[in-house]
Write a structure and sequence with these properties.
By secondary structure, the chain is α+β, with helices and mostly antiparallel strands. It is built from two helices and four strands; from the N terminus they run ααββββ. It is 48% helix and 18% strand.
């Protein structure tokens, strides 16, 4: 073929088919990412709730060392800052121990921690 003659093809640019294939691939990847986003947010919220429970347990031990009793809900609320959207509740607290629960707004799962075992478990 003679360059620039009939039937010659330019070497620069993309064809319409190539552009449509790229757009299709991007659309498929976006669909996958959007579908999994709520699950990722819920897992991140669960991790924040568990972390706040562990930090609150450290707060409870510090509070006990100073006051010879564990912090109730009002003391915990006034002196302990939780992560955003985490609800931390003191179920019970006295001189012998405490039990707390935490939930994140993006998740329906609740976690509990008691001074008896110190482990974060599903409620």
């Amino acid at each position: 073929m003679i360059p620039g003659g009939p039937g010659a093809r330019k070497a620069n640019g993309f064809s319409l088919i190539e552009l449509l294939i790229v757009i299709l691939v991007i659309g498929i990847l976006a669909t996958i990412a959007i579908a999994s986003y709520p699950q990722v947010r819920a897992r991140a919220g669960n991790a924040a709730a568990k972390s706040d429970l562990r930090n609150a347990a450290l707060f409870q031990e510090d509070y006990y060392a100073t006051n010879a009793t564990y912090a109730d809900q009002s003391a915990l609320t006034s002196d302990f800052d939780t992560s955003e959207n985490v609800t931390l509740t003191v179920v019970s607290a006295d001189q012998t121990g405490y039990e707390m629960s935490a939930t994140h707004a993006t998740s329906t799962q609740s976690f509990c921690l008691s001074s008896a075992d110190g482990a974060v478990v599903d409620c």
